[in-house]
Amino acid sequence: MEKFEVYILGCGCAVPTKLHSPSSQIINIREKLSMVDCGEGTQLQMRFHKLRFMNLRNVFISHLHGDHCFGLLGMISTFGLLGRTGDLHVYAPAQYDGLFQQQLQFFCRDLSYRVVFHAVDTTAYQMIYDDRSMSVYTLPLLHGVPCCGYLFREKPVLPHIRRDMIDFYGVPVSQINNIKNGADWVLPDGTIIPNSRLTRPADPPRSYAYCSDTAFYPELIPRLEGVSLLYHEATFTEERAERARMRFHSTARQAAMIAREAHVGQLLIGHYSAHYSDGRQLLEEAREVFPDTLAANEGMVIKV
Predict the structure, then answer these.
(1) Residues 17-55: pLDDT tens digits?
(2) 74, CA 20 to 30 Å: which among 171, 176, 249, 264?
(3) Which of 67, 110, 164, 292 is the catalytic position?
(4) Choices 3.40.50.2020, 3.30.360.10, 3.60.15.10, 3.40.630.10: CATH for 4-157+203-303
(5) Which pLDDT tens digit goes with each residue over 252-295?
(6) Residue 67 bears catalytic tag
(7) What is the pTM (predicted TM-score) of this model?
């Protein structure tokens, strides 16, 4: 199975604590690295987890609160100091474009590489990135400022070759790609060996949804239907549900309700308020509704 991993670099709320850093994750799909959100200290977390700076291709910013983007400019500057040459693509709310260009001009002149800004419409569900490995879609969220999550969908892969059948029928290596792409094999006597005897079905495509800061938002459910792994903020427990509503955040129970109704494979909660010394109380609350829930923690690597 191709690599599809999520690295947790930060899963805390607006105020950093000794336990948690501000929001940031790395998504590794077939050795292509993308980042979602870039809170303060993100580049240090990449160092700690031995993630190669030069392999990062895209950065997706959910919204313009500092705990989700204050680390971006410092990281861009560091890449320049290290002599990066490949383009870095930044996807962020359209409102950031002018200020971002000013910041680059002031702090990051004469970079050795291009930083390409892509303005994101946070109100629309649409595909904003596509390559041979994955497609990325925006997920409109309900927060105090323009905000969207991101949905990463893996592209389908080819069927698996049955090595025992390939050897048995003497199929040459030069024909393997044709077999993977659906060709049958014809023996010297004209007998046709159907493709289904030479291959096993491909692994089903996987998906990962990152739902950053948002109030409880049931409109998300159809967009999240059946995703393999859902990250959903869980800033508070139910006892602080009114505070969550006023600040456009979710409780752990609300995150679990979204996961349950969307029939997701697994739920990952994070963005914990500094009020909580650890995530156990939030995790217990979420598991009462959706048992297959994990609590994010710095250094965690989740295989999708």
Answers:
(1) 888 999 999 999 999 999 999 999 999 999 999 999 999
(2) 249
(3) 67
(4) 3.60.15.10
(5) 999 999 999 999 999 999 999 988 877 889 999 999 999 999 99
(6) yes
(7) 0.92
